[in-house]
Amino acid sequence: MELKKYKLGEIATIIPGYAFKSADFGYGENIAIKIKDIIPPSINISEADKVGYTPDDKFRLEVGDYVMAMTGATIGKIGRMNIRKTNVFINQRVCKFIPNEHLCNKDYLYYLLNNECFMRFVTNNIDSRLAQPNIGHPTLYKFEHLFPPIIKQKQIASILSNIDCKIELNRAINQNLPTLDRSSEVVEVHRVA
């Protein structure tokens, strides 16, 4: 299998979030995704802020899109949009990734961005540490990786996606299991003895 080295800027476009005005928040039908709404591996839109302004479509999130925190203590965290909604937009200091589908599989890139090598790149290439750590999309574009052919990327992403589905299913099963009150069991055993 032949691997080819690409910089992130050669295989994807990074869209930094829209700078909503403070007057836009608190009302409206649209949802603004901020860093606080990125709860890996997902984006939590249930508690996201409402906004009354509709920015350009490039800032819109669709199901399957993923975003990254570009600022703060959780810089580099990634979350994926798992809900089909049409009124969700990224706020500033959050970015989304749009891979060139001829060179990079969208799911493969998602798993790569969640890899330790990408997180190490982010922490080692922070642009500013004044008030809090920051990284800009021009710096993110410099991240390099050896990419397999697109067919192999799809296969790898499919395997990882299947594992994620099984983990999520197990998590859901575990949350629905009845909880046992062990203290009452102990009391019953002592009464019988």
Give a description of the structure.
By secondary structure, the protein is of the alpha+beta class. 33% of the residues lie in helices and 23% in strands. It has helices at 8-11, 106-113, 116-124, 137-140, 150-176, 182-192, and strands at residues 4-7, 12-16, 25-33, 38-39, 42-43, 49-51, 66-69, 78-80, 88-90, 94-99, 144-147. A four-stranded antiparallel β-sheet has the order 2-10-7-8. Strand 7 and strand 8 form a beta hairpin. Helix 2 crosses helix 5 (150-176). The longest helix is centred in the C-terminal third of the chain and has 27 residues, at 150-176. It starts with a strand and ends with a helix.
Keywords:
single chain; 193 residues; alpha+beta; three-stranded mixed beta sheet
Approximately how much beta-strand content do the residues carry? 15-25%
N-to-C CA distance = 67 Å
Shape: globular
Give the strand order of the largest sheet, numbering strands 1, 2, ... along the chain.
2-10-7-8
Number of strands: 11
Structural class: alpha+beta
What is the overall number of helices?
Answer: 6
Q: What do the pLDDT scores average to?
A: 91
Taking the sheet with the most strands, its summary is: 4 strands, antiparallel
How are the elements arranged and paired?
Blueprint: E1 4-7, H1 8-11, E2 12-16, E3 25-33, E4 38-39, E5 42-43, E6 49-51, E7 66-69, E8 78-80, E9 88-90, E10 94-99, H2 106-113, H3 116-124, H4 137-140, E11 144-147, H5 150-176, H6 182-192
Parallel strand pairs: 3-9
Antiparallel strand pairs: 1-11, 2-10, 3-6, 4-5, 7-8, 7-10
Helix pairs in contact: 2-5
